[in-house]
Amino acid sequence: MRSIAKFYYLGQDKKAGRFIGQQDVSCYRPPLGYSATAELIDCHPFTQQHFAQSEWWIFLTPDDDYEQS
Question: Sign of the C-alpha dihedral, residues 2, 11, 36, 31?
Answer without folding.
Answer: positive
